[in-house]
Write a structure and sequence with these properties.
One of its GO terms (biological process) is tRNA guanine ribose methylation. Its EC number is 2.1.1.34. Belongs to the class IV-like SAM-binding methyltransferase superfamily. RNA methyltransferase TrmH family. Catalyzes the 2'-O methylation of guanosine at position 18 in tRNA. By secondary structure, the chain is an alpha/beta fold. It has 2 domains: 150 residues, SPOUT methyltransferase, trefoil knot domain (Alpha/beta knot, 3-Layer(aba) Sandwich), CATH 3.40.1280.10; 60 residues. It has 10 helices and 7 strands. Helix 1 runs antiparallel to helix 7, helix 2 packs parallel to helix 6 and helix 7 crosses helix 8. It starts with a helix and ends in an 8-residue tail after the last helix. It binds S-adenosylmethionine. S-adenosylmethionine binds next to helix 6.
Length: 239
């Protein structure tokens, strides 16, 4: 990993917003899921939550793997997802095209916040609406009844980013160091990381220059030939 790339990844991770997330309820079209995850990365969301029922599991699940930088947590039900988000003291906002929904610009996103988005055709479930703290809507005055879900997500997330930037929330790092190290290892040493995963070997720490810090015993666990090790940046061994 070059020093420039290493520094860039560290800078990206430093601005991750641990207490801002989205929950996708049966959003399953791959291009929509990918577009939303991409926006999440762009505004600094670290983890996305998903709920897919049996009908939607395959398509949504497939698209999710496309983004390396955003973690995902799948839940079996919207109730389970809401419980997990509430356990993190998040306010749950549900995008719902109802008469009682408030304008999405009138909400405080500097609080720990999860935003629920619904299925492409039917929107969010009644259960999701019941579990949420607040319905929000992007006002529309045209003939069509709704926006594309990834467009709706981008608009709301950029309002959240705007408020959080003003509040200085991008100035303080919140991602735990352990999580940073994992992402740095995955990004900088993808082949080694795959081997570790396959063999159940713990990821090694990464130093401030992006180098692996591991004992000889750690390298020996990998059980690969010296030639392969060389190809895998064996010169990074320290200690
Ligand atoms: C195409 S819409 C679903 C429309 C569905 N008929 C309904 O009534 O919810 C898919 C998702 O996009 C988001 N969305 C679309 N337009 C929106 C708007 N104007 N305000 C807030 N969210 C919107 C919501 O998450 C919604 O569940």
């Amino acid at each position: 990993m070059s020093p420039e790339r290493h520094q860039r990844i560290r800078e990206v991770l430093r601005q991750r917003q641990l207490d801002l997330t989205v929950c996708l309820e049966n959003v399953h079209k791959p291009h929509n899921v990918s577009a939303i995850v991409r926006t999440c990365d762009a505004i600094g969301i670290h983890r996305v939550h998903t709920v897919w029922d049996e009908r939607h599991k395959l398509r949504g699940g497939t698209a999710m793997g496309s983004q390396q930088w955003v973690r995902t947590t799948n839940h079996d039900t919207i109730g389970e997802a809401a419980a997990a988000l509430k356990a993190q003291d998040m306010q749950i906002l549900v995008t719902n095209l109802s008469q009682t929904a408030v304008d999405f610009r009138d909400v405080d996103y500097t609080r720990p916040t999860a935003i629920l988005f619904g299925q492409e055709r039917y929107g969010v479930s009644n259960e999701a609406v019941a579990l949420a703290d607040q319905d929000i809507v992007i006002p529309m005055v045209g003939m069509v009844q709704s926006l594309n879900v990834s467009v709706a997500a981008a608009l709301i997330l950029y309002e959240a980013q705007r408020q959080r930037q003003i509040a200085g929330l991008y100035d303080k790092a919140t991602l735990p160091d352990e999580e940073c190290q994992q992402l740095l290892f995955e990004a900088g040493y993808p082949r080694l990381q795959k081997m570790c995963k396959r063999k159940g070997i713990a990821y090694p720490p990464i130093d401030d220059h992006g180098h692996i810090v591991a004992s000889k015993a750690w390298w020996q666990q990998l059980q690969v030939s010296p030639a392969v090790l060389q190809a895998l940046h064996a010169d990074e061994i320290a200690g």
